[in-house]
Structures are given as structure tokens and as C-alpha cells.
TrEMBL record:
Positions of the Outer membrane protein beta-barrel domain: 15-173
Signal sequence, renumbered to the chain: 1-26
Species per Swiss-Prot/TrEMBL record: Photobacterium profundum 3TCK
Protein name per the record: Outer membrane protein beta-barrel domain-containing protein
UniProt keyword terms in alphabetical order: Signal
Pfam families: OMP_b-brl
Length: 226
């Protein structure tokens, strides 16, 4: 089984700040870090605490891309949302290759590893139920990882507006697919505003029955381009 350690990949976001200074052929479309707020909306209510269920979670997202050699780039994406005792984290790390057709349009492919981590905070459950059992302190949940592939494009509609449509698949026991449309509005040469929309669908096998869980997430944040 593949193992993806979020902490191992997070430093890439900081390394990009210095490493790209050695790359004289860097493409600015693939050299950036970004992050901000995320709202995840689900197509059905999911349990978030004892006797509670909601159809949304909120949190943050981070993304970093490094065009380290010619047309090759490395990328890490991480988003984490929560509600009451429930937290959902997804991380993608991979290597990609892009082909620029014009100064304003390029296609890319990416291959990497995807990880989903769903956790319940038992401390909150115990407190809400007025139970005092020390052995129940901590977290329970599920974590899984899989190979993932992505195809996408980056297109400058205007000098200050770039759109990025992409489709991604992950090879879990029940396949996951993701459709993403990212938008970046450039404010200055290096600073931009992001508004991203993502649809995910993942089949979960529960007691022999496959349930399709669909998520729509909305991201608003800032991007720094090198």
C-alpha cells in the first residue's frame, strides 16, 4: 500500500521560495504558492457529532507548484475542512509535464499519489454525551491512499485572468474522480486572487453496498507567483 505523509510534503511550499531562483527557464504558470478559505458542500447530510448531521464543512486549502526543470513540474495540494467532531483532509502530490502551445495556452499531465483522511474527535463526542472514559480520548476514522492521474489546461482569457480546467482520477477501491475549474485574477505581477470550483465523487463500500458521495467545494484565496 502506498503511504503519503502530509508533513513530508508540506515543506515543498517553503522550498519553492528559494529553489525556483536557480531555474532560469521557469514558467510562471507553474511556479506559485497559494492558499485560502474552502467551503465543501455534500449532496447529502453526513454525521458530524452525536445527534448532529450537516451537508457542509469549512476550512482551508494550500497549493504549491514548482517548475523545477524545463517543462517538468512538481505540485502539492492540501485541503482540510471540519464541522463539529468531523474533519476531512485530502492531499495530492505528484510530478507533471506541460506543453506550451502559445504564450497563453498550455496542456499538462500529472501523475502522483492521493490521500483521503476522515477523522472524528472522540473527545468532543465524550464531552457532549457527558461520558468520562479516558481510553476513548483521541481520534477514530479512516485513511486511504491511491495512485492518481490528472489532465488539465491553463488558458489566459485576458492578460489578468487565467482559467485552469482539469480532470483527475484516483485508483481507490471505488474510483474517485474530480472535475476542477480554477480561476486566477492577477492583481500585480506576482500577486493574484483565486476563485476555484471543484466537484468530487467517491464510491464508499459500506457493509457490501457502494454509496456514491459527491462533494462540491469552493475556494477563495491568494496566489503568489515567482
Amino acid at each position: 500500500m502506498l503511504v503519503l505523509n502530509v508533513k513530508k510534503y508540506t515543506p515543498l511550499l517553503a522550498v519553492i521560495l528559494t529553489a525556483t531562483s536557480f531555474n532560469t527557464t521557469a514558467n510562471s504558470d507553474y511556479d506559485f504558492i497559494s492558499g485560502g478559505f474552502q467551503l465543501s458542500s455534500f449532496d447529502e447530510y453526513i454525521p458530524t457529532a452525536l445527534g448532529k448531521s450537516y451537508d457542509y464543512t469549512t476550512g482551508y486549502y494550500l497549493r504549491g507548484s514548482w517548475n523545477f526543470y524545463n517543462n517538468f513540474f512538481a505540485e502539492v495540494r492540501h485541503d482540510s475542512t471540519s464541522k463539529d467532531s468531523l474533519s476531512i483532509t485530502q492531499t495530492t502530490a505528484g510530478l507533471g509535464y506541460f506543453h506550451p502551445f502559445t504564450d497563453n495556452f498550455s496542456l499538462y499531465g500529472l501523475v502522483g499519489v492521493d490521500e483521503i483522511d476522515v477523522q472524528f474527535d472522540i473527545n468532543k463526542f465524550v464531552h457532549q454525551a457527558d461520558i468520562s472514559i479516558s481510553s476513548m480520548n483521541g481520534y477514530v476514522g479512516a485513511k486511504d491512499n491511491a495512485l492518481t492521474v490528472e489532465l488539465g489546461a491553463k488558458f489566459n482569457v485576458l492578460d489578468a485572468w487565467q482559467i485552469e480546467p482539469a480532470i483527475r482520477m484516483a485508483d481507490y477501491d471505488e474510483k474517485m474522480y474530480e472535475l476542477r475549474l480554477a480561476n486566477t485574477i492577477r492583481i500585480t505581477k506576482n500577486i493574484g486572487l483565486e476563485a476555484n470550483f471543484t466537484h468530487r465523487a467517491l464510491g464508499a463500500n459500506t457493509f457490501g453496498q457502494v454509496q456514491n458521495i459527491r462533494e462540491m467545494n469552493y475556494q477563495v484565496g491568494m496566489r503568489y507567483t515567482f
